[in-house]
């Protein structure tokens, strides 16, 4: 994964935005931008250029992924899931997962950190 731009600063509050326009595609890169970050969880928007991947990892928390542009291949505990525009999936806590961009896509990732203390 080539993360050329990771912005951990929250977005401005009380200001409308178009979610798919928050982040752009950059050749040969995966970009992430924080929408909101709290101790109880965070929401991030990411863009993946065609051919980019995120290596297998796991999280101690449930993560909800929603595709907001293009389509994505997500592998959860060895099972491939092809998500299209508008679709979402919950990645359960403590499961191995990875992402692969067969085409460009953008997603929203929501992590909820309560319930696992």
- Fourth CATH level, the homologous superfamily: Jelly Rolls
Largest sheet: 6 strands, mixed
**What is the CATH C level class, in words?**
Mainly Beta
CATH topology value: Jelly Rolls
Bin the strand percentage. over 45%
Alpha-beta content class: mainly beta
Helix and strand element order: EEEEEEEEEE
Describe this structure in words.
It comes from Dyadobacter psychrotolerans. This is Cupin. The chain has strands at 6-7, 30-38, 41-48, 53-57, 62-70, 72-76, 79-83, 88-91, 97-100, 105-112. With 117 residues, the protein is mostly beta strands. The protein has one domain (6-112): Jelly Rolls. A 6-stranded mixed sheet has the order 1-2-3-10-5-8, with no helix packed on it. It has a 4-stranded antiparallel sheet with strand order 4-9-6-7, with no helix packed on it. β2 (30-38) and β3 (41-48) form a beta hairpin. The model is unreliable at 1-6 (pLDDT under 50).
Identify the notable features of this structure and list them briefly.
117 residues, mainly beta, Jelly Rolls, 6-stranded mixed sheet, 4-stranded antiparallel sheet, 10 strands, 50% strand, disordered N terminus
């Amino acid at each position: 994964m080539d993360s050329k731009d990771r912005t951990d600063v929250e977005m401005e509050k009380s200001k409308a935005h178009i979610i798919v326009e928050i982040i752009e595609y950059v050749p040969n890169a995966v970009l992430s931008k924080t929408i909101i970050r709290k101790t109880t969880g965070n929401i991030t928007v990411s863009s993946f250029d065609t051919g980019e991947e995120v290596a297998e990892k796991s999280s101690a928390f449930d993560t909800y992924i929603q595709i907001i542009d293009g389509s994505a291949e997500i592998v959860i505990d060895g099972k491939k899931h092809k998500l299209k525009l508008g679709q979402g999936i919950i990645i359960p806590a403590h499961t191995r997962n990875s992402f692969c961009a067969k085409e460009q896509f953008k997603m929203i990732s929501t992590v909820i950190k309560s319930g696992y203390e």
